[in-house]
Amino acid sequence: MDSEDLIDELRRIGARYGGAPGTVLPTRPDVIIVRAGSVVVKAHAPGAEREPLVERMRVTAHPALRGIMLEPVTEEVMTVGDRLVTVWPAGTPVDHADPDAAPWEAAARLLARLHAVPARALPPLRAAGGPARVASTVARLGDRSAAELAVRRAFTCLPVPSAPGANPPGVDPGDSSGANPPGSSGTDPGGPSGVTSGGSSGVAPGGLTHGDWHMGQMVRAPKEWILIDVDDLGVGDQAWDLSRPAAWFAAGLLEPEVWHRFLGAYRAAGGVAVPPDGDPWKRLEIPAQAMTVQLAAAAVAAAGREGRPLDEVEKVLVESCLRIVRHRSACHGVPTQ
């Protein structure tokens, strides 16, 4: 099925559930979203597996997540051609043209509420999908340019996955000093154990985790902010859900005041992914480093596809990868990939 035929079928599904003609919305290249009246119809990425998505749809519709994650219009996972398709209520996304209005505190509170839901209270869930994306994103890189080599080197410096429930490599469970790694704002961006396996990272016993949280994963529906996107929902290291803003902050790309608002709101809401006070970076360093590698790999790949040089933000991400290499090389006996 070609893309036009797929879009036509998504429009027909949208008309059935939303009672209006469908319009294609901009999104990432591997996903197609059509809005039709009160609903959006999503064609998931090519190659998405049916059973994990069925599990995640069932969990998202569970009463324990009501008001935290958007509940689907139907739990049914349809197949259109070779794509999995789901239907959701339409919402209003974050306005990326107005960064000052981004709902950082609301996001933090939602993540804290999500993390507080016991995984055992929900239908069975497999591992959160986010960490596995680091390895798959890096794997798509070549090794010809200096930027590609820098990202690959940073990836190989990330700690080896450890057993679920164990402390990450190089962390002494009795050490509460939490020494900050070098880097922007006293930190260095980092990545989670578990990046090659896709399983729970081992920083904490597995808890309910969104798996791919960023500001694009929130909508207002109808008046309150709520989390969306079930594609990576699962059990894993909940610090992963804070890794993207932590990585941006550590790289100097997120204002310290915004980061501290987000972190403070998460802690005030009882978020368990970091300690309630004191230094959060013992929990965040490795997830943030892995996220930095993923973001840099995606940026370098995009620049390559588009035949253009790296922009300023992309250069900062690559430079952060070089800082990860220097930091990891200086660490005492940290095993690497």
Summary tags:
337 residues, alpha+beta, 5-stranded antiparallel sheet, 3-stranded antiparallel sheet, 9 helices, 11% strand, disordered C terminus
Provide a short characterization of the protein structure:
By secondary structure, the protein is of the alpha+beta class. Helices cover 38% and strands 11% of the residues.
What does this molecule look like?
The chain is an alpha+beta fold and 337 residues long. It folds into two domains: 3-90, Phosphorylase Kinase, domain 1 (2-Layer Sandwich); 111-330, no CATH class. Helix content is 38%, strand content 11%. It has a five-stranded antiparallel sheet with strand order 1-2-3-5-4. The protein has a three-stranded antiparallel sheet with strand order 6-8-9, with helices on one face. A two-stranded antiparallel ribbon has the order 7-10. β4 and β5 form a beta hairpin. α3 (104-116) runs parallel beside α7 (256-268), α5 runs antiparallel to α8 and α6 (243-250) packs across α8 (281-306). The longest helix has 26 residues, at 281-306. The protein is globular and about 60 Å long. The two termini are 39 Å apart.
Order of helices and strands: HEEEHEEEHHHEEEEHHHH
Q: Measure the end-to-end span.
A: 39 Å
Give the biggest beta sheet: 5 strands, antiparallel
Q: Helical segment tally?
A: 9
- Assembly category: single chain
Total E-strand runs = 10
Strand content: 5-15%
List the strand order in the largest sheet: 1-2-3-5-4
Kindly state the percentage of residues in helix: 25-40%
Overall mean pLDDT: 86
Radius of gyration: 20 Å
